[in-house]
Fold this protein.
Amino acid sequence: MTARTADRCHPCDREAEFALLPPRERIANDAHWRVVHAVDCALLGWLVLLPRRHVTAVHDLTDAEAAALGTWQVRLSRALRDATGCAKTYVVQFAEAEGFGHVHFHVVPRSADLPAAQRGPGVFDFLRAPAREQVTAAAADRFALELRGRL
């Protein structure tokens, strides 16, 4: 990842280039939300659901954005179950990292055989994995296209 300053918003920067984004950064979208594969992650299928406009707190979502949010979370969870065979999905929202204050929801497939240490909050170990263990851009693009077909 490149260095970011506090006044930059990575999701908004990427949204501004929407038409040029690779499949992993535009798996699916509607007027309010965009689905991407997580970057710098060692778990294939880790998705991020982003509002298409800049918003930094859940309470600032419009009624239309809020109405679509639950539908997206369930659709993505079902598609991940079908694509990965996961036992369940985790849905998490913090939006605190520098450059990522933009509201976003992690939708994470949790396999039945995931070790206990990586369940619950431990799943974030996949975002701290060394580069050699991370999902490649090519693998994320292939997965994105497969998941897009399920949505």
